[in-house]
Amino acid sequence: MLDSFIQLLLRRYDTVKAQHPAEDHLRWELRILEEFWASNPQPAATGLTKPAEWADNPNLIYERVAGEYASELGLLIRTDYSNEDAWREFHTKLQEAENEFLGGQEDVAMGGPSAGGDEDNSSDDSSDDKPIIIKVVNPTADADRQLLSGITNIRALRLFSDEVDIRPRPRPAGVVPSPPHRLVDRNGMQECYEGVTLWIYDAKSNVDGCARLVYGKSDELYGTATGDSWRARVSHIVELQSEIAVNGTLISFGGLDRYDYDERKRNLDEAEPGA
To answer: Is the whole model's pTM more than 0.90, yes or no?
Structure first.
């Protein structure tokens, strides 16, 4: 994290928290983030760090929609509710892939009790020693479905992440600069998010059987953006998630320009309207 953002966080955090007591840690940081970008910030080094106790604050939206965090590696969020048959087929394939990956255990919990009411997403065996690779979020409450329906990647990150940070984004020598944008490069800095890996089931998933793999941090190739996503088939999600979490593998499909351009554009437009 860049120290210039930490400096503002430390100065404003308690005030913003007092002004919005019903919100949570991430929401307070996001409010301060808007102040940060509005100030035309410059990179700075001060040696400051976040207080350790901030990490203990829960994400209230995560807990409301996805349930209590149970060490899941990834979160698959259903954001389209127009085709129940397609969703059930996708969800069944996801369960089968996780069962096979974990050695054919038929009753492995897909994220413990369903975070949204799918009866086939819960397990009769509540043993804590079974790993949770993907927790499935399929809300049934109208308010939660409205919250998630058709959301952008950047919106998903701002709802379900643990932290928002600012990291250096220096432009390599000889590389044409990207148009200034907080998700790509603004004044040599880039907004980024930390938390569980997010997978998004959207309207296209009903047809192609894929989900969006969302990155809270772009890869190291200059010009890539926070919130970029790639589509992965349901049969590959569990294995890819394991590679990401256990081996730290960056899934970018060989570094080729295969990110979802339409989703990137939606992210950029939402993060900086009119940019």
So the answer is: no
